[in-house]
Specification:
Layout (H helix, E strand, L loop, with lengths): L1 E2 L5 E3 L4 H24 L3 H21 L3 H26 L12 H45 L6 H8 L4 H30 L6
Antiparallel strand pairs: 1-2
Helix pairs in contact: 1-2, 2-3, 3-6
Keywords: Chloroplast, Membrane, NAD, NADP, Plastid, Plastoquinone, Quinone, Thylakoid, Transmembrane, Transmembrane helix
Subcellular location: Plastid, Chloroplast thylakoid membrane
Organism: Mesotaenium endlicherianum
């Protein structure tokens, strides 16, 4: 861990093999979690795995030395959006119905197309891997230059000052949007619960 003269931590740097291995491991975690989100039948488990995917994306940002983006990913997506989704699931969740799985020709075609897209995506990553490694090395060189010249590069402090000065109003509006969404979910859940209680059981 290297620290600039201003006391700002510029980031933790690993050797290229370790960084590549961590990148592949975290990417595998993202793919596994994403598959669990769409394949699991219990929606609460899908919501929890979605939070795991968001956390893995934050780890990718850390590997790219984007410390502020990683912190924003944790605070906004994991700490706000995913928690809001889990609240909505718990508010409107009902007993899971018995689902009889039957594959249709359209579903099989869609599954084949999705697998083909995954293969193409993997091949594109392998093809672009030398570019990614060069980007990692260039990013480390830039941070090393910023450390020796005392220049803030990708500084979380600089971005934080901008958010709380020039961008204060949009930053606060984001919290209002999340609050409105939470109140809306509670309102919809209460209306459905009230309508179910008013139904005559004899009918």
């Amino acid at each position: 861990m290297s620290t600039s003269k201003g006391g700002l931590v510029s980031g933790i740097h690993f050797s290229e093999p370790i960084q590549s291995s961590l990148f592949a491991f975290v990417s595998l975690g993202i793919l596994t979690g994403a598959m669990g989100v769409v394949l699991l039948r219990r929606i609460i488990y899908s919501g929890l795995l979605l939070g795991f995917v968001f956390a893995c994306v934050a780890l990718l940002y850390l590997l790219l030395d984007a410390d502020f983006v990683a912190a924003a990913q944790i605070l906004i997506y994991v700490g706000a959006v995913n928690v809001l989704i889990l609240f909505a699931i718990m508010l409107v969740s009902r007993p899971d119905p018995v689902i009889h799985v039957s594959w249709t020709s359209g579903q099989m075609l869609a599954t084949g197309a999705a697998l083909a897209m995954c293969v193409l995506f993997g091949l594109s990553i392998l093809d672009a891997w030398p570019v990614l490694e060069a980007s990692f090395k260039a990013n480390q060189d830039v941070h090393s230059l910023g450390t020796h010249t005392n220049i803030r590069i990708n500084s979380a402090q600089t971005i934080g000052l901008s958010l709380l000065s020039d961008l204060l109003v949009p930053f606060e509006l984001l919290s209002l949007v999340l609050l409105v969404a939470l109140v809306g979910a509670i309102t919809i859940a209460r209306k459905e619960h009230t309508s179910e209680q008013n139904v005559d059981p004899s009918l």
